Amino acid sequence: MPFKPNTMPLGLAALGILFSSLLLLMPNSDDPSKDVDGWRSFAWKETALLIGLAIAYAVVLRPVGFIVSTTLFIILSSRVLGETNIVRSITTGIITSGLIWYLVDEVLGIYLVAMPAIFGGSS
Amino acid sequence: MIEGLLVGLQAAISPFNILMVFIGCFLGTFIGMLPGLGPMSIIAIMIPIAIQLGDPASALILLSGVYYGAIFGGSTSSILINAPGVAGTVASSFDGYPMARAGQAGKALTIAAISSFAGGTIGAILLMIFAPVLSSVAKLFWSAEYFALMVLGLTAIAAFAGQGKIIKAMCMTVFGVMLATVGESALHNAARFTMGIMDLQSGIYFVTLVMGLFALPEAIFLILDKKRSQAMANNNKIENLRITKEEAREIAPVIGRQSLLGFFVGVLPGAGATMASFLGYGIERNLAPSGEREKFGQGSIRGLAAPETANNAACTGSFVPMLTLGIPGSGTTAILLGALVALSITPGPRLMEDQPEVFWAVIISMYLGNLVLLILNLPLIPYIAKLLTVPRHYLIPFVIFFSLIGAYIGQNNATELLIMIALGCMATVLRFGGFPLPPMIIGFILGGMLEDNLGRAMRKAGGMEFMWERPMTLAILVLALALLIYPMLKDRRRPSGE
After folding, report:
1. Helix residue ranges per DSSP H, B327-355
2. Which of B166, B180, B263, B383 could cross-link B317 (Cys pair, CB 3.0–4.6 Å)?
3. Where are the beta strands (DSSP E) in B188-266?
4. Chain B residues with CB inside 8 Å of A65's CB?
5. Cβ A30–B162 below 8 Å, yes or no?
6. pLDDT, tens digit, for every residue of B16-37?
7. ipTM over 0.95
8. DSSP assigned state of A33
9. Helix (H) and strand (E) counts for chain B?
């Protein structure tokens, strides 16, 4: 039997079918995850907003540049989670993004687009 | 041997070299704490600086400090924020993170530091004794045995599963190996499961997956369960830095066993720190008395000491094939091999005879790296653990931000971030369903090597015959099957609904 690119995926599919069937057929003895307790009181809205912010961050990181997008991400997400002091969140955002950019780009030499293209950054 | 040690000491000990090891450890620890920057990338970044030093002994000492520092830094982030930056420290988060959440962050970091020190130092002693002998054993292993060894590593996850979860764990393992088949395989040029996305051509990036499965769901759960995370914020005192006599007595045999096991697993090329830490964790869980076994995964000091010791001992063990055969056993040693070649040193069977001072300087640099790390980090632990006192509304954005940026700087690719967020949401749902996630990551890590070795073995044998024709392969595979079936049978005999 020759070894082809699909040998492993086929074998895995067979194992996947086997274990999934066993999961369905065998009596389920484990207790459900403790994390589920009290899920009604979970902060679903905050979670959805934070995931939305993370997606937005991923999308704008390159075009807008690291410093602006990171500062905005930290300001907005800390506000969503209950930070009331706007000055503190802006300061934290600017210091974190500046410091990490300096460490990654300047010290370690890993290129990170800092600014939007119109301010001299390139993507 | 004593003569060799003296030669190494002569080459290694000077005020300048001691300064180098301090700088290396310090930089390694702090950069290693950033998720996504593992020892491999940090050493790669430091190589130009090390080569600038000119002297091979100084260069090796700097790199060794960086190496051990980065491993400890990685453990720190996996213990404090459940964000293991490298595969080798994933197992440390299983018990380290629950300890940190229970207000024992300082103690967890102390145990990690001491276990790492012991594992690394005992590993270095073993390296000195066994290097010549072990290289001949490693030569006996072919792709067929490596394949069997990977299968054994995968079935050992039964140890993580806990009662009644073995099938769920196996489902997750298979899923993890499936994820590893995305992209081109090493033996073929055919792209698989890329769904037309160019960025998937080279497969899913390890850091993306690990952040998506561990750090991101943790952040999501912290947001979801507001009450729990607020209670946790009040529980972040870093008291209890000291280990009691009873605790020391409890972890001493674990450290002894895991130093040996970790070292020997590390010697096998490709196995390395990750497999050693998972195997070590599994074995200690099975050896623990029944009352203690339930504590595994909830903040057991044995569960933390085992992977930390095995991880460091294996890192030392992985130097054996590199120094004696010139074959790098892991990604990190491959990079170190590159550094040695750049310094006009050719590692291989003749190294010990031709350039004994270099061989022994490597060993001395390991002792120094481990010792300095302990001296440097024990007093720093209270400050490192203060990371946890960051308020919830900043801690969560930071965890999300560091996870995202860790995946981004590794690949410089924004698609990676979207994949990671999708994986994070999926992992959260799986956690709700009670599916254990560590087996998935082990499946992913070993999956690539598994396919590679299976392919080579099948090509050589012309089919699957190697599995029963090679006695050593057959023996390892039978052991793997037994490891899987035994807990399943034990589960069935036990009344359900525990």
Report:
1. 331-342, 351-354
2. B263
3. 191-192
4. none
5. yes
6. 888 888 888 888 887 777 665 6
7. no
8. P
9. 25, 2
Q: Which stretches of chain A score pLDDT less than 50? A: 33, 35, 123
Instruction: Give the pLDDT of residue A60.
Output: 92
What three-state secondary structure class fits B51? Answer: helix
Q: What is the pLDDT of residue B137?
A: 64
B 421-480 residues inside an 8 A Cβ radius of A: 421, 425, 431-434, 450-451, 454-455, 458-459, 462-464
B88 is written with which tokens?
Answer: 């080798």
**Which has the closest alpha carbon to A92: B284, B278, B390, B251?**
B390
CB of B201 within 8 Å of a chain A CB? The answer is no
User: How far is it, in rounded angstroms, from Cα B283 to Cα B306?
Assistant: 9
- The model's pLDDT over B450-466, given as tens digits with 9 standing for 90+, comes to 888 899 899 888 888 88
d(CA A80, CA A76): 6
C-alpha R_g of chain A: 23
Q: At what angle do helices B56-81 and B2-12 cross, to 10 degrees?
A: 90
C-beta atoms of A16 and B174 within 8 A: yes
Three-state secondary-structure class, residue A110: coil
CB-based burial, B68-96: b 16+ in 10 Å, e otherwise = bbbbbbbbbbbbbbbbbbbbbbbbbbbbb
Residue of B nearest to A27 (CA): B496
Write down the domain spans for chain B. 2-493
Structural contact between residues A57 and A73, judged by C-beta atoms closer than 8 angstroms: yes
Interatomic CA distance for residues B470 and B158, integer angstroms: 26
Give the number of other Cβ atoms within 10 Å of residue B162's Cβ.
Answer: 21
Coil, strand, or helix at residue B183? Answer: strand
* Binary contact (A23, B167; C-beta < 8 A): yes
Radius of gyration of chain B, Cα coordinates, nearest whole angstrom: 22
> CA angle, B133 as apex, B127 and B137 as ends, to 5°?
110
- From A19, which residue of chain B is nearest by alpha-carbon distance? B171
Q: How many CB atoms lie within 10 A of CB B165?
A: 22
